[in-house]
Design goal:
Blueprint (H helix, E strand, L loop, with lengths): L24 H15 L1 H15 L5 H15 L15 H14 L5 H15 L1
Helix pairs in contact: 1-2, 1-3, 2-3, 2-4, 2-5, 3-4
Pfam family, one: DUF1232
InterPro entries: DUF1232, UCP031804
Keywords: Membrane, Transmembrane, Transmembrane helix
């Protein structure tokens, strides 16, 4: 996956979600930072758990594919429930993230949680 030649918003230009390769690291960070306060800490925490778990070399390919598919949905500009709707806009995102966490939860270890805690501390403290 080539993440160096892409920019936030460049992935999936046709708004077609077809594979884990649709995940773009730049789009993930852009959306996560932009949505941090609106989405709520729980959504951001879960997305970071998945992101950091996917970065680990010992996470198997099937788990990374599941994670990147969920994160691609999170950054996808078109959702089942638009993110701009107050109080419910991120419920579909949270559902997708929760499903991915259920599938790959054994790869969310204390190191992943500490990385997430550190990143969230940078943003919210």
């Amino acid at each position: 996956m080539d993440t160096e030649s892409t920019q936030p918003g460049d992935f999936n230009k046709d708004n077609k979600f077809t594979r884990a390769d649709d995940f773009n690291e730049g789009s993930f960070w852009h959306k996560t930072v932009a949505a941090a306060k609106k989405a709520g800490i729980e959504v951001i925490e879960k997305s970071l758990w998945l992101y950091f778990a996917a970065q680990r070399p010992d996470t198997p390919i099937w788990a990374k594919s599941t994670i990147y598919a969920a994160l691609a949905y999170f950054v996808l500009p078109i959702d089942a429930i638009p993110d701009a709707i107050p109080a419910v806009g991120f419920t579909d995102d949270m559902g997708v993230l929760a499903g991915a966490l259920g599938a790959v939860g054994m790869h969310i270890d204390s190191d992943v949680k500490q990385q997430t805690k550190d990143k969230m501390s940078d943003w919210f403290d």
